[in-house]
Design a protein that fits this description.
There is one protein chain. By secondary structure, the chain is α+β, with helices and mostly antiparallel strands. The protein has a domain at 2-50. Helices cover 13% and strands 28% of the residues. The strands form two sheets. The protein has a three-stranded antiparallel β-sheet, with no helix packed on it. The protein has a three-stranded antiparallel β-sheet with strand order 3-4-5, with no helix packed on it. The longest helix is centred in the C-terminal third of the chain and has 11 residues, at 60-70. The N and C termini lie far apart (64 Å).
Length: 82
């Protein structure tokens, strides 16, 4: 989640994951998830930003499986050429 303030109209906007929010002034600051856009980004201030924890953390079983897979040998196939 990100909280942004527009310097032109002093409106604070907090982001939502699936919803687009805009301040409505001529700068047209728009926040969608963690994406911030505006006509002039120098007129925007990022008030706070929270980074979510990684959702794809691997368990010890996953790490062990990947290590075993990494150590496997590649078989070379011999083909007859005629």
């Amino acid at each position: 989640m990100i909280v942004v303030r527009c310097r032109q109209c002093n409106k604070e906007i907090s982001s939502l994951e699936n919803q687009t929010r805009s301040c409505g002034c001529p700068n047209m600051m728009t926040v969608t998830g963690d994406i911030l856009t505006a006509s002039d980004l120098s007129k925007t201030i990022v008030v706070s930003r929270t980074q979510e924890e990684e959702k794809d953390k691997l368990t010890s079983q996953d790490l062990q499986w990947q290590e075993q897979r990494r150590k496997r040998k590649v078989r070379k196939l011999d083909f007859e050429t005629r």
